[in-house]
Amino acid sequence: MALREISRGVRQFLGQIHRCGSGVASKRTGELRTSPHCCRGVVGSNRVAFCFLVPTRCLSQAAARPEPTPNEDEAVSPTFVNRNPRNLEQMALAVKDRGWKTTWPHQQFYHRLMFSRSQHHVTAEVFSYTSPVPVLSCSTKEWAVKKELATTNCVVACHAVGEVLAHRCRQAGITRMVYRAIPWMYRSDGVQAFRAAMKQGGVILSEPRRKYIGP
C-alpha cells in the first residue's frame, strides 16, 4: 500500500508540473507566491517541493539579445570606384570605337590579334583599343622560342608562336579577342596552324556583341 501511494503521489506531482499555472516571485519582498491551483492534488512533503520547484521553472527565460552597434567600417560608401577597368569589357558593356566603315581592319574591338609572317620570322601581337602599343606579343626573334625551332618561318614556327602567345594571354586574363586575317592569306597553312594553336590554348578568336543598356 505504501508503494502504491508513493507512485500515485509521483504521478500526480509530474502531472501537476505539466499543467502548472505557475508561481510568481515577488520582487519587493522576495517571497514566492503560488496560485491555489498549482499544488492541488499534491500531498505530504511533495507539496512543499512542488511549490518551490514550479516558480523556479516558470521564472526561467531566454537571455536578452544584445542590440547591434553600428560599425563605421561596414558602412556603404555613397560613391563607387571601379577598381577593375576590364570589368565592363568582360560584361560587354564598355564602349567600342566603331571607326570609319571603310577602314580595314575595323576599330570595333576590345582586343585585336595581329599575325604577320615575313621571309625570316613570325610575329603575333595583341593590341588593346586604348593603346596603339601591343599589350602582348610573341615572335620567333625571341631566343627562348628560336632555340626550339629548326627554322623561324615555317608552319611549325607559326604553331609554336600561337601556343606561346595563347599561354601568355591566359596568364594576362585575356581570353577573347578579334582576329581578322587578310583574305588571300587566310587559307595558308601557317595561318591555319596559328589559329588552331590559339584555340587549343584556350583563346576565343571572337568577342561578344556590345550590350546597349538604355536609361
Q: Characterize the biggest β-sheet.
A: 4 strands, mixed
| Poorly predicted tracts of residues | 21-39, 45-57
Number of strands: 6
End-to-end separation: 90 Å
What is the N-to-C order of secondary-structure elements (H for helix, E for strand)? HEEHHEEEHHEH
Average pLDDT across residues? 78
Strand proportion, as a percent range, falls in 5-15%
Return Rg in Å. Answer: 41 Å
Produce a short descriptive summary:
The chain is built from 6 helices and 6 strands, in the order H-E-E-H-H-E-E-E-H-H-E-H.
Report on the structure:
- The protein is α+β, with helices and mostly antiparallel strands and 215 residues long.
- Helix content is 33%, strand content 13%.
- The chain has 6 helices and 6 strands.
- It has helices at 2-18, 45-59, 87-90, 143-146, 155-172, 189-200; strands spanning 24-25, 32-33, 111-117, 122-128, 131-139, 178-179.
- The protein is elongated and about 115 Å long.
- The model is unreliable at 21-39 and 45-57 (pLDDT under 50).
Descriptors for this entry?
215 residues; alpha+beta; 6 helices; elongated; four-stranded mixed beta sheet
SSE topology sketch:
Blueprint (H helix, E strand, L loop, with lengths): L1 H17 L5 E2 L6 E2 L11 H15 L27 H4 L20 E7 L4 E7 L2 E9 L3 H4 L8 H18 L5 E2 L9 H12 L15
Parallel strand pairs: 3-6
Antiparallel strand pairs: 1-2, 3-4, 4-5
Helix pairs in contact: 1-2, 5-6
